[in-house]
Every structure is written in C-alpha cells, then in structure tokens.
Amino acid sequence: MDTVRMVVLVAATVTMGIMAGVFGLYSHTVMPGLRRTDDRTFVAAFQSLDRAIINPWFMLGGFLGALGFTAASVALLFGPGSPALSWTIAALVLYLVVFVITIAVNVPMNNALKAAGDPDEIADLAGVRARFDEAKWSRWNHVRTVATTAALICLAVALLHYGR
After folding, report:
1. How many whole angstroms separate alpha carbon 23 and alpha carbon 76?
2. Is the distance from CB of 50 to CB of 7 less than 8 angstroms?
3. 72-99 residues labelled b (16+ CB within 10 A) or e (exposed)
C-alpha cells in the first residue's frame, strides 16, 4: 500500500506541476503575446488555442488528472499520524478553487469567443474582442496560476513528509 500511496502522490504532484505550468505560461507568455496582436489575430489565435487544449492528453494528464490524483492522495493518506495529509488536503482545496474558477469564469468566456464564429466572417472583431474582456480572463488566470503553484508546493512538501 505504501507504494500505491507514493505513486499516486507523485502523480498528483506531476499533474499539478503540469497545470501550474499551463496556467503560468498563459499568464506570462500567451496572453501578453496575444495582447500585442490585432483583433483578427487575437480572436483567431485564441479560438485555435482553446480548441487545441481540449484533448485527452491535457484533460486526463493535467486538468482532471491533478484533481483526481490529488483527491486520491487525500483518500489514501487519510488516517491518524499522517503528516503528509494536511499538505495534500491544502493542495486539493487550492485546486478545487482553480477548478471552480475555470468552470465558472474562464470556460464560459472561451466558449463565448468561440461562439462568435469564424474571424473571417465577423463584422465587428473589435467588439468581439472587447466583449471577451482579456483583462478579466487574465486576472482570473493569474489567480489560477498562483493557486496551482501553491498547490504544487503543498504537494512537494507532502512528498517530503511522506518520504520521511
């Protein structure tokens, strides 16, 4: 059972690291890069990125994997005298916040931008971009970046405690 606990905790840590990296990359590279583009390029590029990220590798190996492996780690570590448990619970709570923000804020914004249609057929690209509200999307993504990074740190500390 110790091997299973360790493997699941490592998987939680790795998938959380992937998510911290994804959100971080959007915060410091993707969105600042897109901010410097014209309206057509922004809409087309963001739509394309959003379609590409919805794939089994990302969903299972990152977004849902971080949630599932972290929750499984909590369940497997549950019991008296487990110093890794509190750190793992903290990571799960942080990631649940990220999950809710993603589902409640970022995904609806992404879907609205995709629903605007083909950028070559949109008459008012500036209006579509303005309604998307890049600043709001980025602010919430910064929260996701900080929260997943904090969750990753919690899982790393949990690994240290578990390994002792």
Report:
1. 27
2. no
3. bbbebbeeeebebbebbbbbbebbebbb
Nearest CA among 83, 82, 140 for reference residue 109: 140
Task: Calculate the average pLDDT of the chain.
Answer: 96
Spatial distance between the Cα atoms of 66 and 77, rounded to a whole number of angstroms = 16
Q: Cα(131)–Cα(140) distance, rounded to whole angstroms?
A: 16
In the chain, pLDDT over 70 holds for what percent of residues? 100
- Is the whole model's pTM more than 0.90, yes or no? yes
Report the alpha-carbon distance of residue 1 to residue 82 in Å, rounded.
14
Task: Record the tokens describing residue 146, joined without a space.
Answer: 């900080």
Which phi and psi (to 5°) does residue 148 adopt?
-70, -35
